[in-house]
């Protein structure tokens, strides 16, 4: 987690030139977001050659550091040495030195897919709990983090997102809550009449009420299911 501490109020080392002090204080004021190299000249209002020389001096003494933006390695941000770069610069936990860590992401996607398959019907929280209990990861990722991976599985068409109707196989998930199922599992025959109700995969189930805008009485899919 980045350090969002307030800039140090003490005056920089007296060995700094006045130009170096201006640059150091400017960079430090940006905290973990740092400042893009192109913006340094504009905000410091110093000649380009002076800025370049001063930055080189601050870097060599370890007072500041240059971090590449994850979207472009040629785009550098300068930060005071006491700050860790924000995810807005590094790309977050799924990036390693500015590049997407595809090997780790693929591994975690495989773990989540395995747990969703075992759980039959899963929520982000139940998948996250299963991943934690497996202890295959050295870092404890939050449900929000795991939710990003599950979302990627949906985009990959490996998992389908549904809304629970609170019945049958969805009984453990509150009605209207988002839940997930492996796409290959949907090919398996469902057991029991309640499990086959189309409400189980309806994205509007949370809004469905008798007499409402979305209602069983006006649902063509529900009518077809009853006729069948």
From TrEMBL:
Sequence similarity: Belongs to the eukaryotic RPC34/RPC39 RNA polymerase subunit family.
UniProt cross-references to Pfam families, sorted A to Z: RNA_pol_Rpc34
Transcription among keywords: yes
Q: What is this protein called?
A: DNA-directed RNA polymerase III subunit RPC6
Where does it mainly reside? nucleus
UniProt record, GO biological process: transcription by RNA polymerase III
From which organism does this entry originate?
Corymbia citriodora subsp. variegata
Q: Which UniProt keywords apply?
A: DNA-directed RNA polymerase, Nucleus, Transcription
